[in-house]
Amino acid sequence: MKKIKIKSLLKSFIPALLAASLGSIFVYLDYVDYDSLVKPFLNPPKIVFPIAWTIIYIACMIATYIVDVKEDDKELKQKCIINYYINMFINLIWTVSFFGLGQLVVGLIVLILLYFSTLSMFLSYRKVNKWASNLIIIYLLWLLLALYLNICIVFVK
Description:
By secondary structure, this protein is mainly α. The chain has one domain. The protein contains five helices and no strands. α1 (about 5-30) packs parallel to α3 (about 75-100) and α4 packs antiparallel against α5 (about 130-155). It is elongated. The N and C termini lie far apart (about 55 Å).
C-alpha cells in the first residue's frame, strides 16, 4: 500500500475546499434569488446542484492529487497545479459574480473563462495521467450545462 503524501493532499484539497466553502456562502445568501429567475426547460431540480458540485470538487481533488504524486517532471507538475489553482479561483469568482453580486452577464463571461480554464486543466492532466484527466470530464460536462443555463437566464426572458 502506498503512503499518502500529506503535502500533495493539502495542495489538492485546500483550493477546492476554499472555493466550495466561500462559494457556498454566496449561494446561501442568495442575492440573486435563483428561484425567481426565468430558467429554461432543462433546468435540473435545485437539489441536484450541491450534489453535482460536491462530486466535481471531490473529482478535482482526487485528480490533482494523482497528478501531483505521479508526475516526476517538476515543470509539468507545476503547470498542472497552477492550472488547478487558477481554475478554483475563477470558479469562486463565478459564484461571487453570479450569486454574490447578481451580475448575470459578468457571471456568464466568467463562466466562459472557467470552461476554458477547466479545458486547460483537463489537457495538462492528460499529459500526466489519463484517469486523472477523465475525472475532469465530469466538470467539463457540468460547465456546459451551466453555460446553457446562464445563457438562457441572461438572454431569454
